[in-house]
Amino acid sequence: KSTDELFAWFDLKPFASASMAQVHKATLKTGERVAIKVQRPGIKEVIIEDIKVMYTVAEIINRRVPSARSFDPVGLVRNFEESILKELDFIHESVNAQRFYNNFSGTDADSRFIHAPKVYREFTTPRVLVLEFISGFKVSKLDQIASNNYDRELLARKLGISFLKQVFEHGFFHADPHPGNILILNTGEICYLDFGMMGNILPK
Question: Which of 110, 182, 195, 202 is the most buried (most CB within 10 A)?
């Protein structure tokens, strides 16, 4: 369907972009503000060609640099391939985001200060992901933390506890927690973004 049919308003100009996708602001017919992550056309084909080159280089290293064999260059490329192809499937990311959201939807003190965007599954496809629009600033913006009178030590403690909780309680953790993927909201909550890469730890 066209954007006019699906949304009350859709900003054609992206407000954020990365190597695989760009993000647009929109408003649903119900009035809710959303962020729409749209995969770049043809990016999957580009990545597949790049991976073929990586396999070729890894095989050459394997043959010609005996000392590198212990690092298993071909295995490293295979792991990268599995990870990146999962990232290209936004249905996979939407499931991760929903699971993360559910994990922190409890009322315990450690969950209340963590936020995750709501997923709008009815608008999500393998190449389009629609999430609740989150307004905040990067966790690395120390000047904004200071100007908002937030306690840096408390924020760091909350962030640390949230990560330990992901690893040791949920067994499901954010595997790409750089500052662009962690926002501070005006409520003082910490919000994680981008759930394309997640880690799993089995109870054993």
Answer: 195
